[in-house]
């Protein structure tokens, strides 16, 4: 059997834990998080650097069993950049087949077209303040559909102006939900909220709920 696309696929895993979803339109829902190891990006404000290396390898079926043991319906596959592992698509499909409601958090730098259509893709666009704007894979935008979400994390007013321009240029709000978040400790959330209302932007403002609840604690 093909070891990268079949059920014998193995993936490197940093952690699996249950928490409440801290972002996206699913915010607040009790969710199992599957954090895959590794990321080809280096966003300057990254808060999951511990997922860049290490971890342990597990088979797809084993990961599905570990998820099921938590007894929750919602599952979020995250990273790192989960799509950097070839077996990620097989894992997503296996989780859907097992009856879970599955979302994927991805950087927007890699091809999202291989992802099972049952999965809600929460895709970043990297603003200049991330230091990784050049990694945006713009071809992904044509792949977006209702049920997906675009998330842009903003470090300052220049990032906000950039996001406003991308939303208009690519008609993002007509494709799916668009989420704007401030970098914690860097951009005043109230200021961002005021800009959004001032400009009547067709987006959803969000704060990272897990940071409000648990700061940067790992496994929360
Ligand atoms: S894509 Fe995500 S995991 Fe990778 S460096 Fe950026 S914030 Fe961190």
UniProtKB/TrEMBL annotation:
Residues 26-216 form the Radical SAM core domain. It comes from the Bacteria. [4Fe-4S] cluster binds at residues 39, 43, 46. Pathway: Purine metabolism; 7-cyano-7-deazaguanine biosynthesis. It comes from Thauera sedimentorum. This is 7-carboxy-7-deazaguanine synthase. Catalyzes the complex heterocyclic radical-mediated conversion of 6-carboxy-5,6,7,8-tetrahydropterin (CPH4) to 7-carboxy-7-deazaguanine (CDG), a step common to the biosynthetic pathways of all 7-deazapurine-containing compounds. S-adenosyl-L-methionine binds at residues 45-47, 80. One of its GO terms (molecular function) is lyase activity. PANTHER family: 7-CARBOXY-7-DEAZAGUANINE SYNTHASE. It catalyses: 6-carboxy-5,6,7,8-tetrahydropterin + H(+) = 7-carboxy-7-carbaguanine + NH4(+). Pfam families: Radical_SAM (PF04055). Substrate binds at residues 20-22, 35, 78. Binds 1 S-adenosyl-L-methionine per subunit. Signal peptide: none annotated. The keyword Iron applies. InterPro entries: 7-CO-7-deazaguanine_synth-like, Aldolase_TIM, rSAM, rSAM_QueE_gams, rSAM_sf. Its cofactor is Mg(2+); S-adenosyl-L-methionine; [4Fe-4S] cluster. Its EC number is 4.3.99.3. Homodimer. Mg(2+) binds at residue 48. Keywords: 4Fe-4S, Iron, Iron-sulfur, Lyase, Magnesium, Metal-binding, Queuosine biosynthesis, S-adenosyl-L-methionine. SUPFAM superfamilies: Radical SAM enzymes. Belongs to the radical SAM superfamily. 7-carboxy-7-deazaguanine synthase family.
């Amino acid at each position: 059997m093909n070891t990268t696309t079949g059920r014998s696929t193995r993936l490197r895993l940093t952690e699996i834990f249950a928490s409440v979803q801290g972002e996206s339109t699913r915010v607040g829902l009790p969710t199992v998080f599957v954090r895959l190891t590794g990321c080809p990006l280096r966003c300057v404000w990254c808060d999951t650097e511990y997922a860049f290396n290490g971890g342990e390898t597990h088979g797809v079926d084993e990961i599905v069993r570990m998820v099921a043991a938590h007894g929750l319906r919602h599952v979020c596959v995250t990273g790192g950049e989960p799509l950097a592992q070839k077996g990620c698509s097989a894992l997503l499909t296996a989780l859907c087949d097992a009856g879970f409601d599955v979302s994927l958090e991805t950087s927007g730098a890699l091809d999202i077209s291989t992802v099972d259509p049952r999965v809600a893709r929460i895709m970043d666009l990297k603003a200049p303040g991330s230091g990784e704007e050049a990694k945006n894979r713009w071809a992904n935008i044509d792949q977006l559909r209702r049920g997906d979400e675009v998330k842009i994390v903003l470090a300052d007013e220049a990032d906000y102006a950039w996001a406003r321009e991308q939303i208009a240029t690519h008609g993002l709000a007509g494709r799916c939900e668009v989420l704007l978040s401030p970098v914690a400790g860097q951009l005043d959330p109230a200021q961002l909220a005021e800009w959004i209302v001032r400009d009547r932007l067709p987006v959803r403002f969000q704060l990272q709920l897990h940071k409000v609840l648990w700061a940067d604690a790992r496994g929360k």
